[in-house]
């Protein structure tokens, strides 16, 4: 029997394999190249469940609509596939951090991802070679300079960060080494701390035992790098910053930081001096470590827990060196260290009383 015309057309149609993903030129990873909104990859959103309290906060403050997350994540992956100068992670949990941090504005999320990787590429002294098993990195981790506190003031409250620069010796460690470890902790929080991502973070900077040698490590260029990394290049929201035990010379560095801060972040700075009762009016005493009169774990206990956690992320930090931007492929003006920070070559030391 002869085949009908319709059947003949179907029979002779050219079989073209559909390739949804192209291999990435960097080992161990793949990058989406052309992903339909409802591809098998996106059929199920792979996100941690969040508490009811955080779910309500995300809806109320971040414009999160659970039924749209799948489509928004697919849109970001499609954009990254068409943006050759960015080498980025594309898993759901990573990308949703940027959607939440940008209140689900896709355009702002794209800009934030671009800046996130551009700044990291421009400051390799902070963002590359972050192997936690390297001797000096592990030494700094064990000092506990920056520690996320275990408890929050409620299920939908911000994460509290305690920073103690006075515990490191500035004659032995550079500020770049100290901040490198800080970025490692921040990366982990970005990946696994829903309170931090949805509710934001509150910082406590304890300047006890900080000397002029610490302050002299802060050049204007370095301060600008830090503020840009924590503002324009971060999806995390700063909800407040509290300074305690402030020494002589603090105002010089403080005023320089404020110069590079947004007006919103400047309005969230609080200087308490040595008056911890003033601090307790903003952060409940019970949430602080025992050494600060609180009811939380001791500083050695928190430090030890974070050492184990950072070591468990070793593969992640080794993989991170494969991500960033290739400015040769960017359409338009390249985002280099000079164009981003604008003060390369200016390494004047601060004059501290």
From TrEMBL:
InterPro entries: CRAL-TRIO_dom, CRAL-TRIO_dom_sf, CRAL/TRIO_N_dom, CRAL/TRIO_N_dom_sf. Pfam families: CRAL_TRIO (PF00650). Residues 130-300 form the CRAL-TRIO domain. GO terms for molecular function: phosphatidylinositol bisphosphate binding. PROSITE patterns: CRAL_TRIO (PS50191). One of its GO terms (cellular component) is membrane. This is CRAL-TRIO domain-containing protein.
């Amino acid at each position: 029997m002869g085949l009908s015309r319709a059947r003949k057309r179907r029979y002779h149609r050219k079989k073209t394999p559909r390739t949804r993903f192209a291999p990435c030129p960097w080992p161990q990873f793949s990058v989406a190249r052309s992903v339909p909104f409802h591809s098998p990859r996106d059929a199920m959103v792979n996100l941690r469940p969040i508490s009811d309290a955080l779910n309500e906060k995300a809806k109320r403050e971040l414009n999160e609509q659970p039924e749209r997350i799948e489509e928004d994540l697919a849109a970001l992956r499609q954009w990254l596939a068409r943006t050759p100068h960015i080498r980025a992670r594309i898993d759901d949990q990573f990308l949703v951090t940027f959607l939440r941090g940008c209140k689900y504005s896709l355009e702002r999320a794209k800009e934030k991802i671009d800046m996130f990787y551009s700044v990291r590429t421009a400051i390799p002294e902070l963002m590359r070679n972050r192997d936690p098993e390297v001797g000096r990195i592990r030494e700094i981790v064990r000092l506990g300079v920056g520690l996320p506190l275990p408890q929050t003031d409620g299920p939908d409250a911000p994460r509290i960060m305690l920073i103690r620069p006075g515990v490191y010796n500035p004659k032995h460690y550079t500020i770049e080494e100290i901040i490198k470890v800080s970025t490692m902790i921040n990366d982990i929080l970005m990946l696994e701390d829903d309170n931090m991502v949805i509710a934001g973070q509150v910082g406590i900077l304890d300047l006890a035992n900080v000397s002029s040698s610490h302050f002299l490590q802060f050049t204007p260029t370095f301060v600008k790098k830090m503020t840009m990394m924590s503002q324009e290049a971060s999806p995390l929201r700063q909800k407040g910053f509290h300074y305690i035990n402030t020494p002589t010379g603090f105002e010089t560095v403080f005023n320089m930081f404020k110069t590079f801060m947004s007006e919103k972040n400047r309005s969230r700075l609080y200087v308490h001096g040595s008056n911890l009762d003033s601090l307790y009016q903003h952060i409940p005493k019970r949430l602080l470590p025992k050494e600060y009169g609180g009811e939380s774990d001791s500083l050695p206990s928190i430090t030890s827990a974070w050492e184990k956690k950072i070591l468990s992320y070793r593969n992640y930090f080794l993989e991170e060196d494969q991500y960033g931007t290739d400015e040769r492929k960017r359409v338009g003006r390249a985002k280099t260290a000079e164009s981003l920070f604008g003060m390369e070559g200016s390494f004047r030391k601060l004059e501290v009383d």
